[in-house]
# Entry
Amino acid sequence: MHTLIVSGGRIDSDLALQIWNGTYAHRIGVDGGVGFCYEHQLPLTEIVGDFDTLDQKILRWYKEHTDIEIRAYDPVKDATDTQIAVELALELGSSQITILGGTGTRLDHVLGNIQTLYLPLMQGVDCRIVDCHNRIRLIKDRYVIRKEEQYGHYFSLIPFTTDVYGVTLKGAKYPLDGYHFTACGTGSLGVSNEISQEQVEITMESGILILIESKD
# Structure
């Protein structure tokens, strides 16, 4: 079951409308992202947030003219609105989650959203943040990127856990064999690699990597 989350970061209209045409069991609007859906008349199934950035007239319209479930939270809380939406998607039984509006000018929110990807990863749920330049997910154990399905031309690997042991890349322009990534000393070695064959296979003995596929 695939769930689409529309969060309150920067949203490219063309990309969003293209992704919207996919098949989703749930479409969750998150605070400011609800405004984008309202503007483009995109129907939602659930709405969540503390609504500190959404125009209150829009929120009132949804309350008065729809029967969409609205979960409102106190702005003083221990989780971002996007994390709350991801937790809801997991609660609904999602096996795949796509997040739009998860990146933008607030780098603290971007980093927080990347950390949120840990929750679905630990439940075996494929979750990715997508914008017009990047597709971001967390990976562990083994992951394959097929050239015909890659998002852009480049991919980068950045340690999410302090240490990622035994990283091997096959089919990459810059291969690795049992490499030890560490957040305290790897530097930028994993940035801006390319697929040199039909697919690249990424394996690791332990730890978690941030995988970023990028369009230049």
